[in-house]
Design brief:
single chain, about 150 residues, alpha+beta, 4-stranded antiparallel sheet, 3-stranded antiparallel sheet, 4 helices, globular
């Protein structure tokens, strides 16, 4: 009986040790931003970031995939980044800044609003206004959305 309990305990310990933790919860602002970009595309109207954000910011930066921490920090004007923006070519790193503080950042899926079609920034609350187009469909069949500065 003792050996059986020891075996069960070791199996249970092994299962707990081999189970990976759940993935981090997705940023709720990402869902809000994706909905705003999709709405702008569907209605042929621009998306104004200042109207979508619930936090206070002064400057907005959009970093393309594969930008180094040095490139990011140089653009921001202060040290913040410790890792590449994205090494999979799947996400844009969106960074909202007030003075020399990052107030919000998120990795935003390119297909929901590709930043490769706009400059890094900085954009202000007044200039962070983007039109939205598409150049095709994702593998799931939804439009691959692209951001653009200025009228389209």
């Amino acid at each position: 009986m003792r050996r059986f309990l020891l075996t069960v305990a070791l199996i249970a310990l092994g299962l707990v040790a081999c189970t990976s933790p759940p993935p981090p919860q997705r940023d709720p602002f990402g869902k809000t931003l994706a909905a705003a970009v999709a709405h702008a595309y569907e209605t042929h109207t621009p998306v104004t970031l200042a109207r979508v954000t619930t936090f206070t910011w002064k400057r907005f930066y959009a970093f393309k995939p594969a930008q180094s921490p040095d490139q990011i920090n140089r653009a921001l004007g202060f040290n913040w980044a410790t890792d590449y923006s994205d090494e999979t070519d799947t996400y844009c790193l969106l960074v909202f800044v007030s003075d020399k503080t990052v107030v919000h950042s998120l990795k935003f899926p390119r297909y929901q609003g590709d930043c490769k079609t706009i400059g890094t920034g900085p954009y202000t609350t007044a200039s962070a206004v983007f039109t939205v187009t598409t150049t095709g469909k994702t593998t799931g069949g939804s439009p691959f959305l692209q951001l653009h500065t200025g009228p389209r």
